[in-house]
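Hey, resending since the last one bounced:
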Amino acid sequence: MTGCNHRRTGDHPNPPQERTRVVAASLSDIRLLLKVRSLPKSSDSRRIFIAGGTGYIGTALIPILLERGHRVRVLMRPGSKAQMPAACEVVSGNALDANSYRRLIRPEDTFIHLVGVPHPSPAKAAEFRAIDLVSAREAISACAELAVHHFIYLSVAHPAPMMKDYIAVRVECEQMIEKRHLNSTILRPWYVLGPGHRWPYALLPFYKVAEWLPFTRGGALRLGLVTLDQLILALVEAVESPAQGIRIVAVPEIRLARLHLSREAARKTA
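The structure tokens again:
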């Protein structure tokens, strides 16, 4: 589960805690970029359309896709002030209405859906259905009608003992993907560790014990923690190794994405 931080009206434009987060995020981005540059590149440059590219995951993913040589088009709300890398193409549209961007999608595209309510919590059940569900339904419908090459959906690990409404919406979206017969990769992280999202590091010793015990191992692996770097590399791997049918990428596979990406790129260039 992921989110982003909002600034209150009247706050100093760069309070100390925000400057700290920005520096941490910048260092994390640099480390990830260095990791990616050490990997062999795929010989296939893909055209990618991203909905939800201005959030926690999208802003980390886009520079990496560009570094890998892919062409990136990002959907943004009219009037949005989010800053995107100069090398990507920004297009205007409403993620809740596919008619506002349908003409911009091509059948050969890889469509990545990252739209979601920031800071998910049990109190936001209505927002999950109004934003997460509607945006995914619109994207799935448009991509199915256009026979888009590959659809990548960021879901969530399930079943789980909490966040029932959040999970229910994503399960419903996965079912829509299946019914529309889209070639799709569905990623199922639980909590993504990264700048501003580090408190669960304290739980890692408990996870290690739970993964070791036979009667808790399955749940601990399914609901395990992944880093932002691991998730970004898993998304890149999904782009460069498009699914035929539906492929589910759970937490253990997300953690191994760097290895899979390196092996697949080496195989393609051999």
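Residues 41 and 179 are 34 Å apart (CA to CA).

Sorry for the duplicate.
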